[in-house]
Each structure stands twice: as structure tokens, then as C-alpha cells.
Specification:
The complex is a heterodimer of chains A (291) and B (262). Chain A is elongated. Chain A contains 12 helices and 2 strands. With 291 residues, chain A is mostly helical. Chain A has helices spanning 3-37, 39-50, 52-60, 79-106, 108-113, 116-121, 126-160, 175-187, 190-207, 210-229, 241-244, 259-285, and strands spanning 165-166, 172-173. In chain A, strands 1-2 form a two-stranded antiparallel sheet. In chain A, strand 1 and strand 2 form a beta hairpin. Chain B is globular and about 85 Å long. Chain B has 262 residues and is an alpha+beta fold. Chain B has 2 domains: 33-150, no CATH class; 168-256, Immunoglobulin-like (Sandwich). In chain B, a hairpin with a 5-residue loop joins strand 5 (131-133) and strand 6. Chain B contains 4 helices and 14 strands. Chain B has helices spanning 2-24, 33-55, 62-65, 124-127; strands at residues 68-73, 84-92, 106-112, 117-122, 131-133, 139-141, 146-150, 168-170, 182-189, 196-204, 207-216, 220-229, 236-245, 253-256. The chains are: A mainly alpha (291), B alpha+beta (262).
Chain lengths: 291, 262
Amino acid sequence: MSAAELLTDAGHVAARDVVRHAGLGSTLRWEVRKLRAQLRTKAVLAAAVIMPIPVAVIIHGQSRPPKDSLFGRYSTENGFALALLVLGFAAQWAIPLLTAIVAGDIFASEDHHGTWKTVLTRSAGRGRVFWAKTIAACGFAVLVLLLLSVSTIASSVLVGGHQDLTGLTGQLIPSATALRLVALSWVSLLPTILAFTCLALLLSVWSRNPSVGIAAPVVIAMVMQLVGGLGSIEAVRPFLLSTSAEAWHGLLASPRFTGPLVEGVLACAAWSVACLTTAYLILRRRDITGG
Amino acid sequence: MRRSVTALITAVLVVVGLGIAAFATGGDSTITRARIERSLPQTFSNLYAQQATLLGHQGVTPDSLQATAMCDKHGPDVTDVGPGGDWICLMSWKDPNVPMPPEGYGKFELNVHSNGCYTASGSTKLTGYLMITDKRGREVTNPVFEFDGCFDPSSDDTPTGNSFPSLVSITSTSVTPDQQGRASVQLGCGTGADGCAGTVVAKAGATVLGTQSFDMKEESTKILTFPTPLPAGTKEVAYTVTPSTGVGPSSPSTLPVQNGQS
């Protein structure tokens, strides 16, 4: 191999490397930058941090505890119970909404602003843009869950105190263990929020409409909760995302049971893979000529 | 247009897929009688021990109570499976401070959800009211007045074999003679294993009005009419219930005669 050949070859390799390097990493950085510039992203993050504080204060101030929900009975006198009551609500309603506000918009906003062509005619290919957006949305979901749980647990314990908690088998859980279990319960929503993120991503890709991407996951979550609560078709429960959002109950029982948690992770993984695959195929096959 | 058709087909496929998957995995409810019968006494015992600590009762631990329960969903003719607010459990336990009634159990009503969590509340005679006064004289929430619990949906589902008899009781509060002057009485048969059967003897003073037998399903009522008319001037009728199945009141019940027939 001559020196000149070697040089051009090295040049090619370098050029390829630069393109590869610029690939996912820089596309992701670009997506994150776009997210950071958006008001809604900041609003969601701020809400996740701030909202639990008034919620904790208001529930704690009730003269009659909200007994209809799990842990509501003790929520006015025990901070851990308060954090778990909020978890029960967040798992069914807030989690799908908070993540969908970003994930449901992340693909559709390119349609909304007519920027697909601009994005794709730069160095990034469709696959790369897809993964960058997916990773950005999932990262955002994890961040939201983290902020929401830390804020809820901190404000609940500060407002409600950290007495021993009565668990779901009537057993008394010592304060230190209770804190660990409450934190674990919040962490157990991770698969659920990621699965809802993937669902929102799919709807965002398919509908090309930010409103559908944001609203539909919330409606689907609602329908799943409704279906899961019906007596006659209980057999579908293990396959619903709303069931994985309740799997934390087992952590607060004695003896602890983790069967629903494992089933929840599997169900969420299946939903996520199915949603992402479909979304990827739709985006790959899509004819992007306008915009 | 094409996209919405595809989406519709996909949605239908997802629903059908879920249905098939659900059918393939058995399709039975995880909410069963055996699981509730195991979970309720456990949760109750833990909370009852908490209550005993609050009240300053000695010698009560979750184990010392030896609580057992028998549960039933929606009366005798319905399989005891699935969520709902119509679960009834009879539970017995041993607390030297609070003796059990003659039938040997207290009745609890449960609202069981499809996720395996339930809310239970029971007879306040045995468990007390919402607020109780603790040993230091403070008003505190009674942990067993109403309580929540959850059980493992894949926990042991072999039948517990727990069984309690139904309680036969006289539900009438007075005697209203019919046109022939005959007395009648209404019996109620509570939740229990085999329903209620036995005889009732009615007496007006020294006059025996008759003996009637009964055979009832659990959670039902029945009116028995006695053949001999009431003697003139009868003020009250005494009914003695002798159950052969189920448990009855230990002493005869005396009911006043209503209306002006005297």
C-alpha cells in the first residue's frame, strides 16, 4: 500500500469516524438542547418539583383523611402514608401525562414546525434521529420521575412526620425501613413511566400531531385503569400498564411479594419494545418530501 | 384516511391479542375465597394487637389471637371468586379482654378490588367505634374499625377448610296476628356454612301455639305461622328456636302482640 493510498484510506476512516461520532452523540445533544429550549419541558420539571408541596400540605390539612384510597387512612398523620397516597394517584394519572408532554411532542413537533426535511438533510439519518429522540424522551421521563419522587417523599415526610408506618398486612414498619420501602415503591414506577414514554413516542410518530401524542397516552392510561378494575375481564390485568403501576403494593406487605413487580417489568418491556418497533417502522417507511 | 384505517386495525389487533393472551393464561380471577380467608385474619391480628397496645390490654399478640375467617361472596348461589363489595367474612379470635358472642365469630364486610387490596370493617361490638380512648385518655383512631389490606395474587389458594355456622335470629320485633288470630314470626339466617334448619316453638303464656320447622339457605329470611290462634288477651308470645343446623339465640325471645286484638 502506497503512502498516498494509506493517507486517503486514513482520511476515509477519519471522515467515517467523524460522521459516526457526530452521529448518535451529537444528535442526542441536539435533541436535548431542543428540549431545554422549550418552555413546556421546564414547566413539567418545575411542576414535578413544586406540585407535591401544596398537595402534601393540603392533604395533611384535611380534617377527615381520604380513606377511599390506599394509605389515605393514615395520610393525615403519617408522612410515609402521605407519600404513598400521592404515589397511588401519580401512578395512574400524573405519570402518563408528565412524560407524554415531552415524548408525545418530540416527533410530532417536527411535523408541526415542518422541520423534518431540515433535520434529515443534515448529517443525521432517520434511524439516528429516532434513537436520539427516544433516548432524550426516556431520559426526560427518568428525570421527571426522580424529581417527582424526591420532592413528594421529602415534602410528605416534612409535613406529615416520620412515624412508624402501618403496612398493607397491618404490620408496623419502622421509620427507617419505611423510608426505604417508600423510595423503592416510587422507583418501581420506572418501567411504567418508560413504557408510557414509548407509547407516547409511537403516537407522536404515527399521528404527527402533538396534541394526540400528549392526550392519547393519558386517555389510554385511563382506559387501562378502568378495564383493569372490571371484575369479569381480570385475566387481561397482567398485560396492562396500569397493573405495573400498582405492583409496589407487594413491597408494603409482610411477607413481601414481588411477583407483580416482575410481571410488571415484563409487561412494560413488551409494550415498550412493541411501541418502539412500530414507531421505528412507521418512521422508516414514511415518505418525507414536504416540510 | 389510510393511516386511520391502519390505526383502527392495529388497535383492534392489540385488543384481540390481549384477549387471547388473557384467555391463554387461564382467565381465572386471582381474588379467591382461600386467599382472602388467609389474608384477612393476618391483617386483622396485626391491627388488633396495635389496638390492644393503645388500650393497654395485656396478653394480646397477633399470634395469641389465633384468628380464623370464613368468607363468602354475594350469598349462597354465587361462586366465591372475584372482586366486589359483596364479600362477607366471619372471623373468630381469642382475646381474654373481649369475649366472642355465643355464635363464636364477628361479621366483617369487605370491599375487595381486582388488584388484591381490600377494605374491611366489622362488628363494632367486638372491634369498637371509629375513635377510641387510649390508656392515657386521648381520643385516637381505632385501627380495626375499618382497615385496608392487600394480598399476594399468587399466594396459596388451597381451601382453608374454615367453617362457621349461620346465626338464626328472630327478625320480627312484634307479633301481628292475622285474620284468624294466628301468630307468625320472621326468621333470618345469617352468612354461614350450611344455612339454618331446626324448629321453633311458640307459646302464649302456658298455651302452646304450635311447633314449626324451618330449613333455610344462608342469607335469607322466612316467615313461620303457627296454627293455634292466640288466646284472647295475649300480651306477648315467646318463641324458642332450636336449631339443628346453625346456631340460635340461647334463650327464648318474647315479642309483644301488636294491634288491639286483646
